[in-house]
Amino acid sequence: MAEAKCIEAGPVSTGAVSHRPIFAVGAVLLGAFLANFDSRLFTIGLPDLKGALGLSFDEGAWLSTAATASQIMIAPAVAWLATAFGLRRVLGIPSLVYALVSLAIPLVRDFNVLLILSVVHGLLLGTFVPATLMIILRNLPTRWWLPAIALYSIRVGFSLNSGISVVGFYVDHGGWQWLYWQDIIIGPLLGLFVYLGTPRENVNYELLEDADWGGMLLLGLGLAMIYAGLDQANRLNWFESGTIVALLSAGAFLTLCFFINETIVRRPWAHANVLFSRNVGLALAVILLYTLTSLSNSSLAPNFLVAVGQLRPEQTGPLFLTYAILPMLVLVPLSVFLMRRFDARVVLVIGLVAFAAAGLLGTQVTHDWSLGDFVPMVLLQSVGQSFTLTPIVVLALSNADPTRSTAFAAYIQVMRLGGAEIGISLMATWLRVREQIHSNFLGQHIVNGSIDVNQMLAKMSEHLAGHGGAVTPARALGLLSTIVQREANTLAYIDGFWLTVWFAIAALALVALIGPSPQGPLSPRSGSS
């Protein structure tokens, strides 16, 4: 326990055990799933949203950035706010306001009003996941922790793989407005579960007297600006844009100021010494690598089917629903069963190996791959999602002091949201650069006019002769260019899958360095008793 005792940054955070734990678990389930689910729906449904509201490409891009940046700004501070004001106020009230904002957004046509509402929507949404983690640590009996953490963790895989089908259903049958209006039902239900499942808590005025508001503001604004810079970087050509340079520089400066602030204030909100425990620091690093290797599931496979396979997202939805979501109904309980009897590191290794194997399968893709060819890969990704994030969170919690969970929860949110955006931006840049490189290499053969190229152009010209002799050569060359671009995209995605394999290998190396966790409520012997 020596290592756990050293992590004592941030206020003491304890709560009464819920008298209705089933409603507390329901709140965890709804809150955690709602945050990831809504973010995923917004990403997939953004083209339909832009078309319905008449938004330009730039307006749609900034709307997406604002909606997520506001989540990142509030998320690290939620655990402290829950400690100070109580979970009912921090989670219950925002869930009701969230429903009202979700009702209003589809009715707005002015972009500035829409942008403001999207920021408010993101701020409220950003409270759900951190607050539900606090419900687990503060209000659930310890025997409930492991299954509740599994529900908290698996929200990622569930929302990533089910969002495609849900967007397709809404757009085809109910209208794009239901991307928001579903929360008119879910929001109040979440508020009811929070009210029934969490005990009433008084405001902690002693904690408020020494509140580190400056530290919370510095970290929140710093991370939000870094996110905005990364999110817009590919569109604005990275450091060629003054906007990107300003956002990233200012965000990095504010984040640095936060760490300095935490060393000098009398009662720091989230002191960085939570990172100085070897096991906790390694676990947080593995969370980052998990978000990167899971891009094979969240980004590469579905985007390949759209970019190269020329399929609509709703056409790919059944693949992920059948072979990613349904297996989780068995795999998640199995992962909980294994963690009750074996070290969480063993389960984590199984998940990371599954992700590495899925990435290796992805390196074999060709432009001829159809939905059926992705089934083995998606099944392996389902194993990875079910066996990876839950043991990482368990390892981190097992090595941290639960009564000091506010600082720990802040850094969990930094890695959860920051890691995801770093991964998305990194992969988008990697694919763009690799596609350009492969396109250049393939294009050189066309410019040189090799025998094979000339023969292919002749065959295409013969096939297109019925469209008019004068334009046949130009049409043939255009068709050949399309083929080159398709193959360059395919090769770029292969490179992307290789990248996820190396991320999985790096994560496995870090897991090998994590030492045994101290005995506690999440250890195998305690969990199985």
What is the β-strand count?
Answer: 0
What are the secondary-structure elements, in order, as H or E?
Answer: HHHHHHHHHHHHHHHHHHHHHH
Strand content: under 5%
Q: What is the structural class?
A: mainly alpha
Word description of this protein:
- With 529 residues, the protein is mainly α.
- The protein is built from 22 helices and no strands.
- The chain has helices at residues 2-5, 21-53, 57-74, 78-85, 87-104, 111-125, 128-139, 145-174, 178-181, 183-197, 205-209, 213-233, 242-264, 278-293, 295-307, 313-341, 344-362, 375-398, 405-448, 451-463, 472-513, 524-528.
- Helix 16 (313-341) packs across helix 18 (375-398) and helix 20 (451-463) crosses helix 21 (472-513).
- It is globular.
- The relative contact order is 0.13.
Question: How do the helices and strands line up, and which of them pair or pack?
Answer:
Blueprint: H1 2-5, H2 21-53, H3 57-74, H4 78-85, H5 87-104, H6 111-125, H7 128-139, H8 145-174, H9 178-181, H10 183-197, H11 205-209, H12 213-233, H13 242-264, H14 278-293, H15 295-307, H16 313-341, H17 344-362, H18 375-398, H19 405-448, H20 451-463, H21 472-513, H22 524-528
Helix pairs in contact: 2-3, 2-7, 2-8, 2-10, 3-6, 3-12, 4-5, 4-19, 5-6, 5-7, 5-10, 7-8, 7-19, 8-16, 8-18, 12-13, 12-19, 14-18, 14-19, 14-21, 15-21, 16-18, 17-18, 17-21, 19-21, 20-21
